[in-house]
Specification:
binds adenosine-5'-diphosphate; disordered C terminus; binds magnesium ion; alpha+beta; globular; 290 residues; Transferase(Phosphotransferase), domain 1; 3-stranded antiparallel sheet
């Protein structure tokens, strides 16, 4: 493909060797890469300004590039370099991770609530808290955008293509972003929404998917989804009951009314997330394993 070859030649001249494709999006291709400059395995997200929609070119791409330049957190994928070619090619050079959360859930069916799901969830919460504290919103939180190291211990949030600055509570978003399955009802209904609260909803969907292996709402009809979401989340009968604190947290995050949802700072202080929930008497062995 000429598009990829252009990238290969351009990056090759800069000392990058491209490997297999790791993932593909609507306007991007992510390729494995190596270079002498950075000794770690790399992933390069390639985008071609000439082949994207005006919305993407003038709105989303500039926001993504501006935001990834200023964020740095252990639970956010590390960006080494941004390279822009004169022919419209944009390359985001980042650390490569082994897999993403969707693939892990698909591979395992579902994740054990503790410690696995809770540990990953806690790290996604830390990343989101970092963003919200800086008045940045992600707007595309989903399992595919949570990358994982090979040992599965470290989770890193990625894909800032829909992220933006949201300066205050009155700064409402109107753009439909992300994937319907993870979207809050107000986003689906086209109501101007507080993007931080919509991110918190998506966080609830991510947690539900991890611990059940199912999507909480049927997204075959986006129009009908808000009705389902209003009724509250249900669990497949064939699944053993989840620990009560985990279920309670999912219910809090997936509240229909945005104002009723906790802030991500409050989620970080949740006892289940902080591993402070004990069954009866606190004991070092069982503490946090409820
Ligand atoms: P898009 O905006 O097109 O969704 P993403 O940045 O989410 O692009 O990348 C698409 C996919 O590529 C991801 O879901 C993931 O599977 C893979 N990917 C992206 N970045 C990396 C990375 N740093 N390491 C490994 N795989 C990655
Ligand atoms: Mg993505």
């Amino acid at each position: 493909m000429s598009k990829t070859n252009t990238g290969e030649k351009f990056l090759g001249d800069l000392g990058y060797k491209l490997g297999p494709t790791l993932g593909e999006g609507r306007f991007s291709k992510v390729k494995a890469a190596t270079s002498d400059k950075y000794k770690v395995p790399l992933a390069i997200k390639l985008m071609d300004r000439r082949r994207v929609t005006p919305d993407f070119l003038y709105k989303f791409l500039p926001r993504e590039l501006s935001i990834i330049r200023k964020i740095r957190h252990p639970n956010i994928v590390h960006i080494f370099e941004l390279i822009e070619g004169c022919d419209g090619l944009v390359c985001i050079v980042m650390e490569a991770l082994a897999t993403d959360l969707l693939k892990l859930v698909q591979h395992l069916g579902k994740l054990p609530c503790v410690p696995k799901a809770r540990d990953i969830f806690g790290q996604v919460v830390a990343a989101l808290r970092y963003l919200h504290d800086r008045d940045l919103v992600h707007r595309d939180l989903k399992c595919e955008n949570v990358l994982l190291t090979a040992d599965g211990h470290r989770a890193k949030l990625s894909d800032f293509s829909f992220s933006k600055e949201a300066n205050s509570y009155s700064d409402l978003s109107t753009t439909f972003c992300g994937s319907a399955a993870y979207s809050a009802p107000e986003v689906l209904m086209g109501i101007p929404y507080n993007a931080k609260m919509a991110d918190v909803w998506s966080l609830g969907v991510v947690l539900y998917v991890m611990v059940t292996g199912f999507m909480p709402f049927d997204d075959t009809s986006v129009r009908r989804m808000p009705q389902q979401q209003k009724k509250g989340v249900k669990y497949p009968e064939e699944l053993p009951p989840l620990p009560e604190p985990c279920q309670a947290l999912i219910a809090q995050l997936l509240q229909f009314s945005p104002a009723a949802r906790p802030t991500v700072g409050q989620v970080a202080k949740n006892k289940w997330v902080k591993k402070e929930v004990c069954v009866t008497k606190p004991s070092p062995e069982i503490s946090g394993e409820q």
